[in-house]
Amino acid sequence: xxxxxxxxxxxxxxxxxxxxxxxxxxxxxxxxxxxxxxxxxxxxxxxxxxxxxxxxxxxxxxxxxxxxxxxxxxxxxxxxxxxxxxxxxxxxxxxxxxxxxxxxxxxxxxxxxxxxxxxxxxxxxxxxxxxxxxxxxxxxxxxxxxxxxxxxxxxxxxxxxxxxxxxxxxxxxxxxxxxxxxxxx
Length: 185
Prior knowledge:
Elements: H1 6-15, H2 20-27, H3 31-39, H4 46-63, H5 66-69, H6 83-93, E1 97-102, E2 105-111, H7 112-121, H8 124-129, E3 142-143, H9 149-156, E4 161-166, E5 169-175, H10 176-181
C-alpha cells in the first residue's frame, strides 16, 4: 500500500503545474492546510487526502488532450461507395461505425446497425449495391486536437465517435474505446 509523504504530495502538485492555492481550491480545503501538509507540520485526515488525490486525478485528466489519445489516419468511406465495400472495410478493421468523408469533408457516418437495418427491408443483393449515401446517418461531432479529454468524454456520452479537425481537415478520430484505454494507464 502506498502512503504519500509530504514530499510526494508536493512533487505531484508541481508535476501537475498546480499552485498550493489551485490545489486547495480544487480539493475544497484551505491553502495554509496544503502548505502545512507539504511541510510535514500536520498529518492530514484520510478524507482530506482523498480530496487532494481526487483533485490530482481531475487535473491529470484536464492535461490530457484529444491529440494524445486520437487515432490517425482516419479509416473512412465516401458516400459514392457501395454498402458492400463499406461493410468489407469495417469488417477488415474491426469497426462498428465509420465516418463518411467526401473530398476531405465529413458528410455522414455509417454503422453496422444501419447496414443490418437496411438488409431487413430489402433483398440482400440490392443492399450490397446500394450507395453509402442511401443509408448513412449524421456526421460525427467535430472537435479540435487541443480539446481536453473531459469535454470529449461528455460528447461521447451522446455519440459513438468524434472527429478531430485541424484547419478544416480531418486529422484523427476518438471513440469510446479510446477513452476506455486511458483506464489502463
